[in-house]
Design goal:
By secondary structure, this protein is of the alpha+beta class. It has helices at residues 3-17, 19-27, 45-54, 83-92, 95-105, and strands at 36-40, 63-66, 70-75, 121-123, 129-133, 148-153, 166-169, 176-179, 185-190, 197-199. Helix 1 (3-17) packs across helix 4 (83-92). The radius of gyration is 16 Å and the shape is globular.
């Protein structure tokens, strides 16, 4: 089976097998008003490990981004990526995956974003972080609204004390709900005017991908 088809098949299978849990999490978010869901073990472990090894462990080819809001490295350059990483990104954009998520969440008219506007691959190293923020609410042409933010973590054996964990904030932005960046974990969150989120500073001396 070609890599793209393999990714799509495994993603759809995991979404199907976790459908009840996904709907429950989405409809009754805990610790935050932002609707979201988490799926662990999205891919077969061996395939997830191969994705991690396909990343340049020193971040070579990734663009450093550092502002008051963030410090990380990112890339949207397909031409520089390992073909396996390209297949993974395209799988999340596949029409069948988008349709499945739409059906599970009861959202209509969802579309993929092949331009990866404000998306792509991300690497975080010791001291890197994302302060609480709200994502861009539109595409590059400001013609369509961004409805969902999808995050998939692949760094093996990642522990909470390593930092670099995803945080969804309560309405007053005082207390975050921490979602550990566990390997093979998918997080999908709604993006709107109140979906404040962040990433805690990385403490471990290894990349979070």
């Amino acid at each position: 089976m070609p890599p793209l088809d393999q990714f799509v098949s495994q993603i759809l299978e995991s979404l199907d097998s976790n459908s009840e849990t996904i709907r429950a999490q989405w409809n009754s978010p805990e610790g935050t008003l932002t609707r979201h869901f988490v799926v662990d073990g999205l891919l077969e472990p061996e395939l997830c490990e191969r994705l991690y090894l396909a990343f340049p462990q020193d971040g070579e080819g990734f663009t450093a981004q550092q502002t008051f809001r963030e410090k990380k490295r990112a890339s949207r350059d397909f031409d520089q990526w390992d073909p396996l990483l390209v297949s993974a990104i395209l799988a999340f954009q596949d029409a069948s995956v988008v349709e499945k998520v739409s059906a599970l969440l009861g959202l209509s008219s969802l579309e993929p974003d092949p331009s990866l506007y404000a998306g792509g691959l991300s690497m975080m190293f010791p001291g890197d972080y994302l302060n609480p923020h709200i994502d861009n609410s539109h595409d590059a042409d400001k013609a369509k609204f961004r409805r969902l933010n999808l995050l998939f973590y692949i760094s093996p054996d990642w522990q909470e004390e390593f930092g670099g964990n995803f945080e969804l904030w309560d309405e007053e932005r005082r207390n975050p709900k921490t979602i550990v960046s566990t390997a093979n974990r998918l997080v999908v969150m709604e993006t709107n005017r109140t979906s404040w989120h962040s990433v805690s500073p990385v403490q471990a001396d290894r990349p979070r991908c």
